[in-house]
Amino acid sequence: MSDLIHKNGFPARCANALLLLLLLGVPAFAQEANDADRTSNLLKTLTKDLVGVLGVAAQRPGYQGRILVNADEPFPMASTYKIPIAITLLRRIDQGELRLDQLVPVPDEAVVFSQIIASAFPHSGVTISVANLIEVMITYSDNTATDICLELAGGPEAVTKTMRSLGIQGLHVDRSTAELLKDFYGIDAGRTSLAQVAEIARTDPQRIHAPRADFEADGKDKSTPRAMLSLLLALKAGETMSQAGTDFLLGAMSRTVTKPDRLGRLLPKGTQVLHKTGTVGGVVNDVGYIRLPGGDEFAIVVFTKSSTTDPADRERAIGEVARSLYDYFAIQAD
Length: 334
What we know:
Blueprint: H1 12-23, H2 35-47, E1 53-59, E2 66-69, E3 75-76, H3 82-94, E4 103-106, H4 117-120, E5 126-129, H5 130-139, H6 143-153, H7 156-165, H8 177-185, H9 193-203, H10 206-209, H11 213-217, E6 222-223, H12 225-236, H13 243-254, E7 273-280, E8 283-291, E9 297-305, H14 311-332
Antiparallel strand pairs: 1-2, 1-9, 3-6, 4-5, 7-8, 8-9
Helix pairs in contact: 2-14, 3-6, 3-7, 5-6, 5-13
């Protein structure tokens, strides 16, 4: 049945999820106060064989109900922590301490394995504006740009302090991406990191996607789904910084190119997703906003950890969650 059912353009598993609710005699989403609990349980069922531990927090701004799964459990943020870094840096720009067009040198020792700077600019002498550093940190999850942005923001303590000033509890930044990659993979900072990553991919590819219990338990760079959702809602409401800074960051999130088959995997064609992904070992994350048919958006956090499944299954789990919540919030809006 799961390979055959397609209803109103729904992918098979999502159509089955709705059918399952009907077969169980459960009313349509948004009919009763406990719909959110039913939806949370549905998400656990859909993903139980795809990931290790699932964490979800989602809400449509202006509505009280939230969908929560393990909402107060700490998860490694991986590269989703680049959102609080960007917010902290953009707040410094609001205060006149830095400018978006300010040029910043990228010394060789600051280069980390990354998708743009380390890969596309193999020679010394790179200088990039603050605006473009933030852009590639978000859109391509560039690690070199991230570490420079983190330094410009004042370091990990400054980012965590900013989160507390915004009333965000349960989210903290503790190290650079260079330190994180060193702790997880043993990769050094500097231009040699590219060769080290290539060697791991050649000799021990399973190591790239394998979970590390000690890493997940170390307490660093963690967020609960609830905390990240609170940050996303505050960002969207314009409560974290100026309107210009808010528009800049949301614009970058709308141009994210990494891992489009996570939140956007099963959504109707053309659905706008503004998001930031994160991946390390058994951790696969995606957080952001999904546009509904009427034009409104809902904020969504999907964290996962401790996964030993195929990487493609981990990606699919996020897609299942996103599509189920898209259907839930779309019906809620009716």
